[in-house]
Amino acid sequence: MSLSRREFIGIGSAAAAGMALAPGLRLIDLAQARSPDEAVTSLQRWGLLIDINKCHDCDACVTACHEENGVHGHGRPTTDAQWIRKVTLKDQQTGHVQTLPLMCQHCEEPPCVDVCPTGASFKRADGIVLVDKHICIGCRYCMMACPYKARSFVHEDTTDQKPHAPRGKGTVESCTLCVHRVDAGKIPACVEACNKDGNKAMVFGDLKDRSSDISQQLAAGPSTQLRPDLNLNTGVRYRGI
Question: What is the DSSP string of the chain?
Answer without folding.
Answer: ----HHHHHHHHHHHHHTS---SS--HHHHTTEEETTEE--TT--EEEEEEGGG--S--HHHHHHHHHHT----S-TTTS--SEEEEEEE-TTT--EEEEEEE----SS-HHHHH-SSS-EEE-TTS-EEE-TTT-----HHHHH-TT---EE--S---S-BTTB---TT-EE-----HHHHTTT---HHHHHHHHTT---EEEEETT-TTSHHHHHHHHS--B-SSGGG----SEEEE--
